Amino acid sequence: MKFDQALPAQLRAAQRVVVFTGAGVSAESGIPTFRDALTGLWSRFDAARLATPDAFIDDPELVWGWYEWRRMQLLASQPNLAHWAIAQLAQHVPKLTLITQNVDDLHERAGSTKVLHLHGSLQQPRCFDCNEDYSLPDAAPQEPAEGRRLAPPRCSLCGGAVRPGVVWFGESLPVPVMDAAFAAAANCDLLLSVGTSGVVHPAAQIPEIALRSGAGVVHVNPEPKALGIGREWVLPGLAGQVLPELLREAFNTAKAGGK
Ligand code: BJW
Ligand code: ZN
């Protein structure tokens, strides 16, 4: 890919970089996105029946089974070249803040630390009634097939049903995480927005906050959408191809690769 020559130079010069990721960054690991037309989860499953507190109240077995099926997929997957490139980028810039909307742990498994998870994590379930954390067993879950119901575990404190530790529609994002993410966006020099459709709020405001604060924003996506304000670069393509190339161009790195 041919980059606007100003971009690698901007990345080299940036003191504070934010990387903001969505489901597209994990797509090349085999984790489905939400809104891609044919393969996205919401093209096959009804978000209202699976990703809201009311859905869990109505049918906890359906919801728990679906999330355990997704956790199984995650356990069988590996970070891809995009996750590795982002972890590598942190070694090249003075300060990098990684904000993700993803509930997987692929950034951490690639070596990124202090990841701000705006929408929670598949690995940290908690009690629906009293919020007590629930420790998942070390063993992989018992093979919940797609669409198979599974009874949620019970809370050891109050006996309530255990729910996935993710942020559903209509729920507040974790306030300290959101505050840290918004502050990092408002104070960065350059923000890379990778693999997100930018339709879910309040997360979608993050690139706009960066632009309005004077930072440059780079969009990495096979179907990129610029916001049309400020200094933007649009890099059409797969994150696992574009990000390693950008790093090579900016820092002359060897091919960023997994282990
Ligand atoms: C690639 C690629 C490759 C593919 N390389 N790229 C303001 C306006 C309108 C609505 C609202 C608003 N404020 C709040 C709302 C309501 C709602 C909302 O935003 N709805 C919109 C959908 C209309 N927001 C909420 O409800 C939020 N809560 C809230 O605001 O609370 C306020 C409140 C106030 C008072 C009291 C209480 C509350 C919560 C939102 C929670 C979102 N949860 C989910 C599910 C998480 C759990 C789970 O995993 O099941 O989070 S929904 C889903 O969407 C998930 C994602 O994190 C999120 C974002 O999706 P993402 O990551 O962008 O994925 P896709 O699929 O959309 O896009 C993938 C992109 O990748 C595409 O562009 C591809 O092209 C690209 N791609 N391959 C690079 N290889
Ligand atoms: Zn409880």
UniProtKB/TrEMBL annotation:
<feature type="binding site">
    <location>
        <begin position="221"/>
        <end position="223"/>
    </location>
    <ligand>
        <name>NAD(+)</name>
    </ligand>
</feature>
<keyword id="KW-0862">Zinc</keyword>
<feature type="binding site">
    <location>
        <position position="130"/>
    </location>
    <ligand>
        <name>Zn(2+)</name>
    </ligand>
</feature>
<feature type="binding site">
    <location>
        <position position="158"/>
    </location>
    <ligand>
        <name>Zn(2+)</name>
    </ligand>
</feature>
<feature type="binding site">
    <location>
        <position position="239"/>
    </location>
    <ligand>
        <name>NAD(+)</name>
    </ligand>
</feature>
<keyword id="KW-0963">Cytoplasm</keyword>
<dbReference type="InterPro" id="IPR029035">
    <property type="entry name" value="DHS-like_NAD/FAD-binding_dom"/>
</dbReference>
<comment type="similarity">
    <text>Belongs to the sirtuin family. Class III subfamily.</text>
</comment>
<keyword id="KW-0479">Metal-binding</keyword>
<feature type="binding site">
    <location>
        <position position="70"/>
    </location>
    <ligand>
        <name>substrate</name>
    </ligand>
</feature>
<feature type="binding site">
    <location>
        <begin position="101"/>
        <end position="104"/>
    </location>
    <ligand>
        <name>NAD(+)</name>
    </ligand>
</feature>
<dbReference type="InterPro" id="IPR027546">
    <property type="entry name" value="Sirtuin_class_III"/>
</dbReference>
<feature type="binding site">
    <location>
        <position position="67"/>
    </location>
    <ligand>
        <name>substrate</name>
    </ligand>
</feature>
<dbReference type="InterPro" id="IPR003000">
    <property type="entry name" value="Sirtuin"/>
</dbReference>
<feature type="binding site">
    <location>
        <begin position="195"/>
        <end position="197"/>
    </location>
    <ligand>
        <name>NAD(+)</name>
    </ligand>
</feature>
<comment type="function">
    <text>NAD-dependent lysine deacetylase and desuccinylase that specifically removes acetyl and succinyl groups on target proteins. Modulates the activities of several proteins which are inactive in their acylated form.</text>
</comment>
<feature type="binding site">
    <location>
        <position position="127"/>
    </location>
    <ligand>
        <name>Zn(2+)</name>
    </ligand>
</feature>
<dbReference type="InterPro" id="IPR050134">
    <property type="entry name" value="NAD-dep_sirtuin_deacylases"/>
</dbReference>
<dbReference type="InterPro" id="IPR026591">
    <property type="entry name" value="Sirtuin_cat_small_dom_sf"/>
</dbReference>
<dbReference type="InterPro" id="IPR026590">
    <property type="entry name" value="Ssirtuin_cat_dom"/>
</dbReference>
<feature type="active site" description="Proton acceptor">
    <location>
        <position position="119"/>
    </location>
</feature>
<feature type="binding site">
    <location>
        <position position="155"/>
    </location>
    <ligand>
        <name>Zn(2+)</name>
    </ligand>
</feature>
<dbReference type="Pfam" id="PF02146">
    <property type="entry name" value="SIR2"/>
</dbReference>
<feature type="domain" description="Deacetylase sirtuin-type">
    <location>
        <begin position="1"/>
        <end position="259"/>
    </location>
</feature>
<keyword id="KW-0808">Transferase</keyword>
<keyword id="KW-0520">NAD</keyword>
<protein>
    <recommendedName>
        <fullName>NAD-dependent protein deacylase</fullName>
        <ecNumber>2.3.1.286</ecNumber>
    </recommendedName>
</protein>
